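Q: What would this complex look like in 3D?
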Amino acid sequence: MKNLSYIELLLNLLPQVALVVTAFAALAVDFVVLRRSDPATRFRVLGWLTALGLVAAGVMLFVQFGQVQAHGTYVGPLRTLVLDPLTVFFQIVIVVVTIITVFISMAYPFTTHVSEYYAVLLFGALGMNFLVASEELIAIFVSLELLSVCLYILTAFHKGMLRSAEGGLKYFLFGAVSSAFMMFGLAWTYGLTGDTTLAGIGKAATELAMTGLHGNGAMLGVALLFTLVGFGFKIAVAPFHQWAPDAYEGSPTPATAFIATGSKIASFFILVKALFIGFDGAQGSASWGAFNSGWIAVAATLAAVTLVVGNTAAIVQRNVKRLLAYSAIAHAGYILTGLVAANALGAASVFFYIIVYAFTNLGAFGIVAALSARVGGDDFKDFAGIYKRAPRLTFLMLLFVLSLAGIPPLGGFFGKFYLFTAALSADPKNLGLLWLVTLGIAMSAVSLYYYLILLKTMYVTEPAELAANPAADRIVAPWFLNFALLVSLAVVLWTGLAPQQLLGWIELFLKSLPS
Amino acid sequence: MEPATHIPWIASHLWLIPLLPFLAGGVSALLPRRCRKLSAGLAIGAIGISTLLSFCALAESILRGLLPHAGRQWSAMQTHEAWHWLTEFTWFSYGTTSLKLGFVLDPLTAAMATMVSFVSMLIFIYSLGYMDRDKNFTRFFTFLSLFAGAMLGLVVANNLLLFFICWELVGVASYLLIGFWYHRPSAAAAAKKAFIVTKLGDIGFFAGLLWLYHATGTLQFYTPDHTGALEQATALAGLPGIMGLSLAGTIALLIFCGAVGKSGQWPLHVWLPDAMEGPTPVSALIHAATMVAAGVFLVARTYPLFQASPQVLTLVAWIGAFTAIMAATIAIAQNDIKRILAYSTVSQLGYMVMGLGVGGMAAAMFHLLMHGFFKALLFLGAGSVIHGCHNEQDVFKMGGVKKHMPVTFWTYFVGTLALAGIFPLAGFWSKDEVLTAAFNWGGGWFHKGPFALGCIGVFLTAFYMWRQVCLVFLGEYRGEKATVGHKQVGHEEAETQHETVPGVPHESPAVMTVPLVILAIFSAFMGFSGLPEHANLIHHFLSPEHAPHHVNWFVIATASALAFAGLGVGHLLYGVKPLAADEPDPLKAKLGKLRDFCRDKWYWDELYEATVVRFANIAAVVVDLGDRLLDGVTVGMGLLARGLSFINDKFDEHAINRSFDGSCGTVRLMGRCFAALQDGRVQSYLRLVAVAAALLAFWFFLK
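A: Here is my prediction, written as structure tokens for the whole assembly.
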């Protein structure tokens, strides 16, 4: 462990500084040089610039990763910045996710406000970067807001499209309410424990929880509940999920990809940290017949509701992005199932899952972007029989969707497998969480139904009007999008064929943490 | 077990051997159809490197066998204990349990991998010529690579699960290749039959695998700390199983079911002759290097389990002996050149299984290796003949091919003598080993049975092979000389033909004959690696803990005499007076009804049709009825789920979205949207969230 002085802090924030510089560089280049170019060119040129900046940040993070591994954790003043191998690893993942998002955006030139779009994307990535690296309530809240505001803007970026504005507005409204909930919860937490660092809160909360549900113990319960409700909005678990379908459907597809992947990674990461460190003492239990107040009980209840709501509502969807939104809600349910294990295996399985899930969804949304840019819509009817026009993209979509459904040997299978194993390992003697795991497995069977309907639509269903010349009508993705898709596919296959490797890394990082 | 530091490079990189063909297959699967050269080059290059690596492994193993304590002394042939080089890795783990896979390099692996990769490589090269005109050339090489990769994978596996995965991949690849000309109904049916029949055996194998895992807690064959599944065989022998067998015996029996299916032993031999429907290189691959060898290899690999149970070994020996003699009798009455060879394979596999059953693991493996060479030679030779005779497969429509196809003839001649067991070719030594092992097995007459059957088999083998040589190569050509054009068996096949003068056989191109010559050389001389008594290198190498048998002149004399007798009788019937066109088989007059019985393959197919298939059909009807009942329940459940989701969605749509969708009709009405936000409905939604939070709190504090 190494405490950082302010100068060192700045040096260690160089990757994030690179993101900010890139954002402003993109704005400057756009306004000075590319004023008169057409949007497609600007999307490309600025996309490459943004990607370049992100790669630079990634390289710096990689160097930092080496240093952190060699010297142990770096701790900034007041634990506002904590750099350990796990954090830096996830920062790298976030940067990679953002690069892929940029590639998807370049294939989907939808607006004339190009540089603003990339800048907001970069600021969002910045928010995520800080979010995963802080262990202090105020820093967490500010990063979360930075991230959220960027996402609201991105959702509404499709100016002139009603659904985009509607989605953005809804997202903003519900986001604001959730922030209020969370702020309330965090304020109470601070009031009760007198500390804003997660570790300090954890210590005080453990003592408070001893008193049970009386006096300050009960107030801790209130604080915990409100914080969880706030997080529930961010990660879109039922019944706080209502913004998600509209936001997913309304956003420009690259932005949807970013919301569905990057923000999920960052939010779940910080949720795990907050619960495992901050509310360590107030766990409770969700074992069948032995429910006991605490975050586990709340999370398990939310998981069960989310699994049912997400998976059943997905069945009737007839829009691909909306379907993927409900699927995202369902997946949040699976992740919560692993979270309630409340042990190291649970944390590792959640981290494993969000990485696999992020890359799977990046692939899926990348394909949706490429296809809908040509067919002009993302309803099922637009995608009917698209196999004939885009055989390769459809095949990739098949792999990604099967991974979402959890079919071996794709990453999604082992993701779910680890989550469920973790849930069962929490209470190996009584298998207390068996009820939740059974529900999860049953619901993944349901999920297969709607995923297969999507695939059936793409492969089998006849398109409404047959193209006059299918050969000329072929949809071919530009090479950088293909590259991005193949990278995502590589991750999905890698985690499916050699799952132990990624999990082993995560477990190693977890072990290297001081607590 | 050597300390980890002393593991040679090849032992820790054994996985490269199966991986390369897999990669080649994977890449050429993605290639478009026109990339013929690239896909063939990839396949041959990959198997070539695998072959080199296998030779490295073999060399390392031989050195290990010769120099157990390197540097100290040259103590040739002095290791009397089994040894293995192991590598393992964790595939995935859950909690404290982990699933490990791994690879093993021991003499068995080294010898088998070398034979499999080498023979496969020659067959690949041969396919270049044979499949020349096929429009699905690329696909063919993809499947070939998959086939070879899967087979090599199971050879190097140190884990029953990995073994099983590769085993099933071999099955899949054989299905794809037997049915390669899938537009022919007979090929499609044969592929299906092969897949289903072998799958029957696999059920037993899988059950055995699970039971073994249950009993030992591991699926590794060998582990560094000697707790592998096979290393616990003696312990398993002390536990009770089923039917009065020990647990080791029960598991061995179940595993043997898998071997029976894959290696075409009675009663699951029926798929193997039908598998002739595939292109000839595939037949060669199935019959020599892969697939059928897998079953024998499985038994050899799990031999410690078998050794722990004499009853199962007895059963194995008798099944092998019976299969050997039964298939040989069928082979004498077949007319299709490939079918004769197919039944010959079944018969030879019977010998190997018999060898395993009588305790001669090294002998059986020796025969497997030698058989790999000469049977590949024979099949490729037959393919060359078929190719040269314009896709004619009926031996009665051939004849006199010798003068048209000299290289094919002489190589085929070597293969025939090797298979017949004539001194000093490979088959002589290996068959002699098997028969000697059978002869030395146990005491009473019961234990001499397999040996006696095996001896009769030797006579029959020599007879049917010589019959084939006479009919195909000697005499005058009986084919349809006058007809112009090719026999249109299938679209693709027609394309494989070379445009030459129709009606007259022609020699095959060098790309096909060179592999024949190489295989012929190996068939002729490889046998010297297994001379009896102390010079028996292969025996020392494969099972150092068992001393090889002494020379048994009685067995050698009997077998050789019978083999020559078989050749002689064959020559009397078919060689002395070559048959004219349309002349019936002289065997018909000599054997009468018995010959029909043999020709119709002992009516096994008909028997299965009348029993197993009919039973399956009846069962299908019953199960279908049951399914319909269940279906109702399932549909009901589905409706319920749909109803729930409908309600859920309507709730989303109406309670929440109405306010937006209803009012945001046009851009002009954006302002109204804001109004809609305030008209109470969204607030009521948010209120609902508050209620949910409150319920959560209630639930939280109640407990």
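A: To summarize the key features: Chain A touches chain B through 49 residues (CB under 8 Å). The longest helix of chain A spans residues 39-71.
Q: Very helpful, thank you.
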